[in-house]
């Protein structure tokens, strides 16, 4: 399954001018997965915390944030829709898993058409392919294996028509495991390549 990882919170700011002077509106919106963080909005005269989706505050001439109010999703989309529509897409992250070598698992092979479709839909020319291993073997062996895994995925994408110049590869070896383990532990979920499509 393809997944977009986004920020834990997304802020919407609006500065407006008029007879009353400048106003800044701060609204907390959920990320694409529905997660919401929190934010403290501080002015010269005080501070408020916003920790629920589609709640906002205004800071006006008095430089004090107003008490947070529920603006609602529909109102936020109506007010900020034009600004939100020009935001770049968040990077798409896909994890492909491997056996003990450079062969993709069957489940990961089935994800390749979805990856290619996402690259085409986004017209992406900025794709990062990051190789990883589990902790079996030496540091040098794992760095080489993770490099070869990343290269394998790059070659598969290029064979399907993705320009090689659009793909960067890097490798982390056994560093940055998905599942932390001691050295010399076989962990299939760490035998992976992360594909980041911007």
Automatic annotation (TrEMBL):
Residues 1-20 form the signal peptide. It is found in: Cell outer membrane. InterPro entries: Bact_OuterMem_StrucFunc (IPR050330), OMP_bac (IPR006664), OmpA-like (IPR006665), OmpA-like_sf (IPR036737). Transmembrane segments: none annotated. Gene3D superfamilies: OmpA-like domain. Keywords: Cell outer membrane, Membrane, Signal. GO terms for cellular component: cell outer membrane. Residues 85-198 form the OmpA-like domain. It holds the Pfam family OmpA. This is OmpA family protein. The lineage of its organism: Bacteria, Pseudomonadati, Thermodesulfobacteriota, Desulfuromonadia, Geobacterales.
